[in-house]
Amino acid sequence: MLLTLKDAPLRSTLVLGPGLVQAGTSQRLAVLGLRPGIAFQLVQKTAGGGRMARIGQSRVAIGAELVDQLKVEVSR
User: Fold this and answer.
1) Could you tell me if 42 and 75 are in contact, meaning their C-beta atoms sit under 8 angstroms apart?
2) CATH value at residue 29
3) Average pLDDT along the chain, 76 residues, taken 10 residues at a time
4) 34 three-state secondary structure
5) By the 8 A CB rule, do 62 and 70 touch?
């Protein structure tokens, strides 16, 4: 079942689903390591509604506007 990143649990392994974002945004996310099918974890919620994600050994900030657009599945 796909959830928005906003509704995804912290510290669970998530898999990024197909994106519904603009092409430029999709390219920027890919540069940061967020591509469809990639596994990552949310580690923190930010005060402005964004999220901090850990992808491998890197941490990236995801803004509140993208949190509502990105779809993920909780990996089991």
Assistant:
1) no
2) 2.30.30.90
3) 92 87 84 91 95 95 91 89
4) coil
5) yes
